[in-house]
Amino acid sequence: MDVIPAIDLRGGKCVRLHQGDYTRETVFDDDPLAVLRRFEAAGATRVNIVDLDGARDGTRTNAGVVGAMAAVASIPLQVSGGIRDARTAAALVEDGVARVVFGTAAVESPEEVELAVEELGTERVVVGIDARDGVVATRGWTASAGVPVLDMVRKMTGMGVSRIQYTDISRDATMAHPNFDAAVELLGNTTCRILIAGGISSIDDLLKLKELGVDGAVLGQAIYTGAIDLAEAVSVIQAHS
């Protein structure tokens, strides 16, 4: 299982939003590249980058920052936020991004996800399913799609998607532990590899996710507040591989 630290971008800065609320923002660092370098030094094998402005507005607002990070990164990056079509996904891959994460487009323009899978290959494409009370949310978590999570998973699987990143919005940035029940349900109802985000607060949480068979754990708040030491977390999970 990959331990994947997150860098959430808003206005070019590294921030965290409480449960996806854009009015409840904490700025952790003015220099996202410095954060990336710290994560690399800690032994991270992959970093998750979210363009929060792009996720809400549908444009790659922080494209310059993301491009600069991709140019210097020594480990694979996966990027989400404002990726609404296969062309944008391809441009990110050309810039050096290893994986692109479709969120809103998977609901509103699923044909673009299918095209991206065909053009880039299934290993390059992730579908991010952000859920509130079991229902998919879109546009930076500001809108409800009215679609149950499992229905969305089945649809994406049928389009050739092989990796799903699930975020429980109610737990994001709360460190209230991840939604293990949702992880079990997802793992039992799809052949896709599952990444879990939201609420991870301890190395014990990571170990439990690994035992369940999760492919990756995305964490942010716990690292930024010091609740989890990233280097220790990576070392412990690798030792249990």
List how many beta strands DSSP finds. 12
Helix content: 25-40%
Rough shape?
Answer: globular
Tally of separate domains? 1
Order of helices and strands: EEEHEHHEHEHHEEEHEHEHEHH
CATH fold descriptor: TIM Barrel
* Content-based structural category: alpha/beta
**What is the CATH architecture descriptor?**
Alpha-Beta Barrel
Number of helices: 11
Strand content: 25-35%
Structure description:
The chain has 241 residues and is of the alpha/beta class. The chain has one domain (2-239): Aldolase class I (TIM Barrel, Alpha-Beta Barrel), CATH 3.20.20. It has helices spanning 32-41, 52-57, 63-72, 86-94, 104-108, 110-120, 149-158, 180-189, 203-212, 221-224, 230-239; strands at 2-10, 13-18, 21-29, 47-51, 77-80, 99-102, 125-132, 135-138, 143-148, 163-168, 193-197, 216-219. The chain has an eight-stranded parallel beta barrel, surrounded by eight helices. The radius of gyration is 16 Å and the shape is globular.
Condensed summary:
This protein is of the alpha/beta class and 241 residues long. The protein has helices at residues 32-41, 52-57, 63-72, 86-94, 104-108, 110-120, 149-158, 180-189, 203-212, 221-224, 230-239, and strands at 2-10, 13-18, 21-29, 47-51, 77-80, 99-102, 125-132, 135-138, 143-148, 163-168, 193-197, 216-219.
